Amino acid sequence: MGVQRPARILVVAALAALLAALLAGCAADPVIEPTPAPSFRSEAEAFAAAEATYRAYVDALNQVDLADPETFEAVYAWTTGDLNAGERKLFAQMHADGESVTGASSVQLFLPTSFDQNDLSVTADVCLDVSGVDVIDQSGGSVVAADRVDIQSMRVEFRPSADGRFLVMESVSGRDDGPAC
Predict the structure, then answer these.
(1) pLDDT digit string, tens, across residues 23-74
(2) What's the whole-model pTM score?
(3) Is 181 within a domain?
(4) Residue-range definition of the domain harbouring residue 10
(5) CATH code for the domain of 33
């Protein structure tokens, strides 16, 4: 898939989340407030905070309704920098294109790989199952590539939020190393 793979992974994950929102009903859940984590007493505590952040992000994705831009805000709360900007652009385009999502994504593996005690950053390898997710265009056709991999192998980087109270996702990229998905 080349350069498009990381963007496609995010799109598929985002769309999976949106599908779950469509299946869950009409009322949107309130925005989840991130758990404060100003410092970590141990590597294990940092890894637990990163996993909680990632799972909350996936839950937020699974609640997105592409027809309702207000539902995007919970996803944005868990991201920062270029990742946040990219998701904002992606969701805006999908909304403008009248796309919808069916299904939900689920975390199959979250394996922390590093923690930097100086800047409190965490890196983890993730396997995200998107097999039940489909993105539908206005004409009712799927826009998901036929050769999409059902379980996406990703590397996720986390860092403290701007106010330092909790972790946010700084980047998500496809990976070929680390644990098999």
Answers:
(1) 333 334 445 555 444 478 889 999 999 999 999 999 999 999 999 999 999 9
(2) 0.79
(3) no
(4) 4-174
(5) 3.10.450
